[in-house]
Amino acid sequence: MPIQDGERHSANNSALNCFGTGYLFEKRIVPLRFAIKSLSFLSLAGPLSIGALVLAVGTTGSIIFFALAAASTLSSVQVIVSLWALVANWQNNLSYYIESKSDNYRLADKFNGLANNVNLSDSKWRHQKDVLETMSEMRKDLDLRFDISDEEKRMGMRAALRRYQRPCVACSQVPVSLDSHNCDVCGNFKRRRIRWLM
Questions:
Q1: What's the predicted TM-score (pTM) here?
Q2: What is the arithmetic mean of pLDDT over 3-21?
Q3: With bands split at pLDDT 50, 70 and 90, how would you rate the model's confidence at 195?
Q4: Phi/psi at 163 (nearest 5 deg)?
Q5: Is residue 101 within 8 Å of residue 22, measured between CB atoms?
Q6: Which of 118, 104, 114 is nearest to 160 (CA)?
Q7: Strand blocks (E) in the chain
Q8: Half-sphere CA count of 45, side-chain side, radius 13 A
Q9: Position 127 pLDDT exceeds 90
């Protein structure tokens, strides 16, 4: 039986979903990577700055008292943030987000390529689609452990619609930018970077 339009449409929809998921994990990577780098930098910057100051002015200078007070305050904050980073599992989350982004983008490309492939025999086409759907389901099961909000889903949908130049089923617009607008399918989202560190 020849490949039906509905089957190709299904592969296109799978490409859309995978790309959207990859995009939202890509957006999570940026603030998390920055937070981890900042934390690593600050853990050494404070003690090294005090050491350099002591070498420059000695231990009896009046500025040392104020520098130590500021450093101890910043160190306390840094210790608390470091503890949160351990509890929130920042490093493992970052590794997972990078892996998921890569896998989802790769799956999106493969689904999109398959949807537009007219050179494969019908049986090979369907076999490849089954394999991709199995891989996609496994990836989705893993991704769902990371609490993807409705707002993030709308953000990912907008990015995917823009990538594949498809109209939204609700507002009928083909997005030309990634800016949010008033739509309950591809809009009404805010980029809340701090939430992705929780």
A1: 0.85
A2: 95
A3: low
A4: -60, -45
A5: yes
A6: 104
A7: none
A8: 9
A9: yes
Q: What amino acid is encoded at 45 in this protein?
A: A
Sign of CA dihedral 178, 184, 190, 195: negative
- Give the tens place of pLDDT for each residue, 27-55: 999 999 999 998 888 877 777 777 776 67
Per-residue pLDDT reduced to its tens digit, 158-177: 999 999 999 999 999 999 99
User: What's the rounded Cα separation, in Å, for the pair 152 and 158?
Assistant: 10
**Cα gap 54→8, rounded to integer Å:** 70
How many CA atoms does the CB half-sphere of 154 hold within 13 Å?
18
Structure tokens at 169: 């089923």
Give the H/E segment covering residue 29.
helix 5-57
Classify residue 4 by its DSSP letter: P
50-107 confidence digits (pLDDT tens): 777 667 666 676 777 777 777 777 778 888 888 889 898 999 999 999 999 999 999 9
CA distance 107 to 100: 10
CB atoms within 10 A of CB 88: 14
